[in-house]
DNA sequence: GTCTATAATGGGATAGAC
DNA sequence: GTCTATCCCATTATAGAC
């Protein structure tokens, strides 16, 4: 199909999306890094709003304030640029799972995970949308990341949750499906923001919506797991 | 922007996507209806896999086993065909809310709603993906439906849930955000199926996955609402 | 490194025969 | 009503001047 194999680097410690700069380009150069970030920011927005096929290099160039040819100079092709955007998003999300460790109180750990995920939905909704779009269309670019690094992380966290359950510290919930629900319940405030705004009759997703949403998700999930919220929130 | 206004029919009883056949075409004709369904099925699949921009009329035609020009004969433009696909999906989903009525037991009502929604994720994942894609990209075609009919339905069901809470029949949960969580937790098994399969290490989403998923979502949400599952499920 | 101009492709839409 | 052949535009990518 496509060259998705080049994304998979099972021999390396980190199974991220791999080498994303052009073959001949050295990574250094403060100016280069700044230009790349400028282009990635613009691309994230356009890919989020239009999808991969709907996005145009011209549109990304205009949003970045650069001529179109510069994008090709820095990233070669539209697909490479798209993969670079995805890689940045995965880097962003990988850390939230660190809260789920055996020694921590389950209620505190889950509340912290929800807080972090809601934070990214609030501050980086465009990144979330690009990722959602990629998954809906069958994950052609990130399939190896999902079945590799992400699967191993989920397996590890599944054991943590099973440990909590075995110790009687929370109700017997399917750990993997609990995580699916956590992903869905938090990311919906970024991905489906248009629907939520519409049915709430709001022009914008303000802080107060996210405050209520965070309290709701935390309370509902923790009660669902037989836990009490750690704080008055 | 676009002609979204034509979708809004505030004076009619039903705020669906409105007249979707071509202006001159009479609706009758058994053969016509069959051909339209054939095209809509193919279009749903291609739009789900590729998005609106990524989908090609050629690809839809091949999937339907028809020449490309026939699609234009029946639906005029690509956008009209896309709107017809969306309209069919909304018709499909509108009924699940009927379970949430004041006189019914909250646990039974919510469990029935979850069951129906999981059923659609299981049997019509492509439809769910087309809708998800539309919302992620800002709901350009269904904005009026969301802020019209769907908002009114949600407002009505909010009052039902508030009634249950006021009567002490369930825990005090924000009704609207509860619905957002229900939508997210059920539709994720259709929309994010590629991710779920990848991290579960499965080639296909079989019945057993949906069985576990349904039990999980029902149990977690009902406990989160301070309710006990109505059956042994 | 940056930009203009252009080549090459792909796809939506339609004309017109049957 | 159905289908083939074709038009025309938008878009990716690149050549080559600066």
Automatic annotation (TrEMBL), chains A, B:
<dbReference type="Pfam" id="PF00440">
    <property type="entry name" value="TetR_N"/>
</dbReference>
<feature type="region of interest" description="Disordered">
    <location>
        <begin position="1"/>
        <end position="29"/>
    </location>
</feature>
<feature type="DNA-binding region" description="H-T-H motif">
    <location>
        <begin position="56"/>
        <end position="75"/>
    </location>
</feature>
<dbReference type="InterPro" id="IPR001647">
    <property type="entry name" value="HTH_TetR"/>
</dbReference>
<feature type="compositionally biased region" description="Acidic residues">
    <location>
        <begin position="1"/>
        <end position="15"/>
    </location>
</feature>
<dbReference type="InterPro" id="IPR050109">
    <property type="entry name" value="HTH-type_TetR-like_transc_reg"/>
</dbReference>
<feature type="domain" description="HTH tetR-type">
    <location>
        <begin position="33"/>
        <end position="93"/>
    </location>
</feature>
<keyword id="KW-0238">DNA-binding</keyword>
<dbReference type="Pfam" id="PF08362">
    <property type="entry name" value="TetR_C_3"/>
</dbReference>
<protein>
    <submittedName>
        <fullName>TetR/AcrR family transcriptional regulator</fullName>
    </submittedName>
</protein>
<dbReference type="InterPro" id="IPR009057">
    <property type="entry name" value="Homeodomain-like_sf"/>
</dbReference>
<dbReference type="InterPro" id="IPR036271">
    <property type="entry name" value="Tet_transcr_reg_TetR-rel_C_sf"/>
</dbReference>
<dbReference type="InterPro" id="IPR013573">
    <property type="entry name" value="Tscrpt_reg_YcdC_C"/>
</dbReference>
